[in-house]
Amino acid sequence: MRRFLQLVLMALLAVSLGASAETVEVGKVKFPTQVDVGGQRLVLSGAGIRTKAIFKVYAAALYLKTPATTTEAVLSQAGPKRIDIHMLREVDGNELGKLFTKGMEANAPRDELARSVNGILKLSELFAARKALVEGDFFSVDYVPGVGSTVLLNGKPSGIDPIKEPEFFTALMRIWLGDKPADDDLKEGLLGLKKLRRSN
């Protein structure tokens, strides 16, 4: 009987590991279909590629508790969220910080932008300190209610304190999901409007 229970547990573990190992491939980057943020399981809501001219700049993925297909649904959804970005080419750190700032300025309401200044400065300083993000570098911003937005760089703490203002994460998301998105195709991808190729 004990041997039977061991086999059942091993089978269940294998199924569980298989499910957690499922990924989608975007621009040669494999994003997991599930992640843990703030002790809660989030699912991949959408992903896509940021292109500029003919160049692929980065691949991005959005994680939510429940997939959402409109900007309003993403921004209004309660609970933890994550935006995950993987560089596909080298980008100057200062330039990336400026582009993100411009994206927020172009899309966020004035009051939301005013409350996001602290976070914008911290993110810009982080990128500037790196000088450049090269192909293969990746960073994520995790938003957890009551904690704020935590920035991870290459899977490790970035060294900056959590950005407590909830408006910052909303303004950040507007870069890609606002009325003047950085890339229309990427907006569609993050909103789950493009089919993704699954792999293991």
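Above is the first protein from milestone M3; the second protein from the same milestone is given next.
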Amino acid sequence: MKDKHLHIIQQIGANVCRFLLAAAFIFSGFVKSVDPLGSQYKIQDYLSAFGMASWFPSFFPLLGGIILSAVEFSVGIFLFFGVRRSVASTLALILMIFMTPLTLYLALFNPVSDCGCFGDAWVLTNWETFGKNVILLIAAIIVFKERKLLIRFVSQKMEWLVSLYTLFFVFTLSFYCLDRLPVLDFRPYKIGKNIPEGMTIPEGAKSSVYESIFTLEKDGKKEEFTLENYPDSTWKFVDTRTVLKEKGYEPPIHDFSMVELNTGDDITDDVLTDMGYTFLLVAHRIEEADDSNIDLINDVFDYSVEHGYKFYCLTSSPEEQIELWKDKTGAEYPFCQMDDITLKTMIRSNPGLMLIKNGTILNKWSDEDIPDEYVLTDKLENLPLGQVKVESDTHTIGFVVLWFVIPLLLVLGVDILIVRRRERRAAKKRQNNVNEKKEKTREDNGEKSSF
């Protein structure tokens, strides 16, 4: 009796740990898969922090981020349904054995501000991440040791279909969000957000003090300047960065600063308080930007000029790269300098297009989805394009979940109605055969005894 009770307790404990791991891995894999470029940037931060950026080819951070999200999501789904138990429990344990010491190092030395394990959806401090990973590591050890006690929700004959569809779903979602934009935006530059409000410091809160540092070059000599001592136009722009001088309350948006390339003027307030429409072409590194749809971008600029709207290209690239872009694309729009991280946060596309009015983000487009002449048929005031694009995270999540769940429900239905029914029939047939053999044995024994 004690052994039976112990077995039940072990089974309950193993399955509780299994669902805890499943929830963590599904959430982590999902939020990474909807933002593959965000995962790429975080992996690049890791490689730079550890001095390993030159060790890997340029495509590695993006490919690694997509594969990591697929592995995490798949492991979570496998654990949830109780399929591929050996593979899932082993991968979960390997991941936690790797991540737990890593996050301890991050907590102690802080080479990156956050681990990025849940993307921008849920930002944890490095110590919070380490504590979370310790719990998950314990759960992973228990699940690995007791993997045979995990309850199955799908039969062995159908688990291949669940596995295959899970991989298809997560890779399709990642590449869709890479080609377009993330279907869920967890960043402060989400459509409908007001940029000045995101920069506001609550009354009484001490604000952080930031300073923009500009690297300029003249006569082969590079020097750093601030806005206060920005030199004349004979200096060529090389790079810009934002540094924290004094820590305080940090608003969601704290580093939005537009510096016009030709004049060196900060035009941030003019743009954010403009009651008219402004198109912002965001290309965090202009030399890496995709120019396959440059004709559409130039058409949008021509449309802006025709209707009196403002248009700026925001980049962190040096002036010589901007001049090369102009020569290559025929760009006539003005350029502004901005912090590279800010540009990456604003939109997950290089280039990407953003439409704002009075500081409010009305819409965003990836390079593959820029509006064309069939959309820009009138003034923005008369088009749905000129209004805030209506988005519902609840609706989006529900749609994505249904896209994943409905096929799996069909699989479960087939599994229950057909596969398991066949298994029950086969088991019943085997039992009948055993009973018939027993009956025949008894009859044979009876015949022998009668002699």
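Note on the second protein: The chain has a mean pLDDT of 88.
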